[in-house]
Amino acid sequence: MRKYRCQEELETVICNCCGKKMIVKNGILREGAIHIDHAWDYFSEKDGEIHHLDLCENCYDEIISGFRIAVEKEPAVEMI
After folding, report:
1. Is 34 strand, coil or helix?
2. Digits of tens for pLDDT over the chain (80 positions)?
3. CB of 28 within 8 A of CB of 10?
4. Is-contact 19 13, C-beta < 8 A?
5. What are the φ/ψ torsions at residue 42 (nearest 5 degrees)?
6. CB 12 within 8 A of CB 3
7. CA atoms of 64 and 45, how far apart (whole Å)
8. Which segments of 1-80 does DSSP mark as H helices, in order?
9. Residue 76 in 3-state DSSP?
């Protein structure tokens, strides 16, 4: 869950799973998290809904550890 100050600057990020309030400084999230925005489509029971959620890194790791098929990973090229 995200809250914004003046609709632009990130103010708060809370893990939707465990409720942990994550560190945000100067509008920048300062710890590992995943943000998901998903628009459900025609073939879903949730057609017409858009879901927004945030997970802290610990909750993400816990959730994916239960997957039968592992998450695909690849190295990221850092842009500085």
Report:
1. strand
2. 787 877 788 999 999 999 999 999 999 999 999 999 999 999 999 999 999 999 999 999 999 999 999 999 999 888 77
3. yes
4. no
5. -55, -40
6. yes
7. 23
8. 57-64
9. coil
